[in-house]
Amino acid sequence: MDAIELNNLHVSLQNKHVLHGIDLIVEKGEFMTFLGPSGCGKTTLLRTIAGLHQPERGVITIGGRTVAEGASGLHVEPAKRGLSLVFQSYALWPHMTVFDNVAFGLQVRRMPKANIAESVGAALEKMRIPELAGRYPGELSGGQQQRVSIARAIVTRPEILLLDEPLSNLDAKLRVEMRTELKRIHQELNTTIIYVTHDQYEAMSLSTRVAVFFGGQIVQVDKPRDLYKHPRTLQVAEFIGNGGQHLNHLNGRIVIENGRRILKTQIGLFPLEGGGLLHEGEVVLTIKPEEIRLSEQNSQDSVPAVVEAVFPAGAETLVQLRAGEAVLMARVMGESDAEPGDMCYAALRRERLNLYDKRTGSRLENLVPLTHILEDTLHENRLSYSR
Ligand SMILES: Nc1ncnc2c1ncn2[C@@H]1O[C@H](COP(=O)(O)OP(=O)(O)OP(=O)(O)O)[C@@H](O)[C@H]1O
Predict the structure, then answer these.
(1) Where are the alpha helices (DSSP H) in the chain?
(2) CA-CA distance, 237 to 153, in Å (whole number)?
(3) Average pLDDT of the chain?
(4) Measuring CA to CA, which residue among 334, 331, 349 is closest to residue 242?
(5) β-strands 192-197, 160-164: how paired?
(6) How many structural domains does the chain have?
(7) Which residues form the ABC transporter domain (predicted)?
(8) In ligand 1, which atom is closest to the CA atom of 41?
(9) Cα dist. 86→146, 152, 313 in Å?
(10) 55-103 per-position pLDDT tens digit
């Protein structure tokens, strides 16, 4: 059974229409991340699932049970939805010890004292902080407080754990540490997790699937690697992976010549395979810097290039190339011995190129993979390409 099903959810807050028709199925045991820029509605959706907001339209089903319905006004209260919510701000009670903070939810449920002690002990153990039981929140570091807030959320053994940017108040080192902990907790508890973040790295490294939000809508739901390989829109492509930093964009045009569709770009001509966009039109070709390989050898998939600049950055080196009329950024692992002025070939991974309709920003899914570049037309192309 699916853990959560959202059907055509619309949510307004103080007369502001924040969520515009959300459809989503979260499967049992998933680690689903809501990813998107600030203000796109991720937290609002999380809180609506938790029962802190009521949708004006649409239906929320948790474990097969309808817990909210806009049309009828049905609203199951948060405590009866079988889920726990962890806030960015930890929200611990300062006047209570760690033990009492974690025990609170069990005391409310009138669990016998001995069982409470056992459950709290197990939750603190799971978060690797049993020695902190007697301390007050004010005596803890940010990372320790966040561990306590997660212990408090898992102590009731919820079916579903909702985490709202739980790592955003932690410093970089603690974030890495807690990310590892969250992955472990998910594997050990096998709980369904919904996680809100605007950090692509967190989303990619933790999730089984990622839902990408823009402007109150979900624009793509995919496994991290599929999202990375084939963002569905240009907007998503720019947001994913380094926030789109250095993503190479090439303007191009699809033309039909002798019954064949040809993509004309500043770096060459590409014959196209597949369906989609049957007419001629303006497109954008995106190439990730890590998918350009520098080579001394020419090949079917490479274009001649000149090194313009080299930017060593420790674990990787960015190499700026000029290919035809275009500037391309390539990312090379480790050090590179390339030097400005070097002639080389930029080999492209064809299956990783993405083509987008320039007008709508949508990916032309059926037009990839591209077949090899027509080398004999490169020269002609440079002369004839015009936007
Ligand atoms: N209580 C509220 N009343 C009115 N508008 C609100 C309220 N809460 C959020 N909003 C608005 O709803 C929109 C979505 O906010 P939300 O907090 O869900 O975004 P988010 O994607 O989680 O952003 P962030 O990453 O900054 O937390 C924003 O434009 C915000 O200003």
Answers:
(1) 42-50, 98-108, 113-126, 142-154, 172-189, 200-206, 224-229, 234-243, 378-384
(2) 34
(3) 87
(4) 331
(5) parallel
(6) 2
(7) 4-240
(8) 18
(9) 9, 9, 36
(10) 999 999 999 999 999 999 999 999 899 898 887 777 889 999 999 999 9
Q: Note whether 280 and 250 are same-domain residues.
A: yes
Share of the chain above pLDDT 70, in %: 91
Q: Are 210 and 219 in contact (CB under 8 A)?
A: no
Peptide bond into 55 cis (omega under 30): no
For residue 311, give both structure tokens.
């930017």
The residue contributing the CA closest to ligand 1 atom 10 is 13
- CB-ligand 1 contact for 42 (6 Å cutoff): yes
Same structural domain, 15 and 93: yes
Statement: the pTM of the whole predicted model exceeds 0.90: no
310-322 pLDDT, tens digit per residue, is: 999 889 999 999 9
CATH number, position 86: 3.40.50.300
* Residues in contact with 334: Cβ distance below 8 Å, sequence separation at least 6, in sequence order: 315, 316, 317
Cβ–ligand 1 contact at 72 (below 6 Å):
no
Q: pLDDT tens digits for 15-64?
A: 899 999 999 999 999 999 999 998 999 999 999 999 999 999 999 999 99
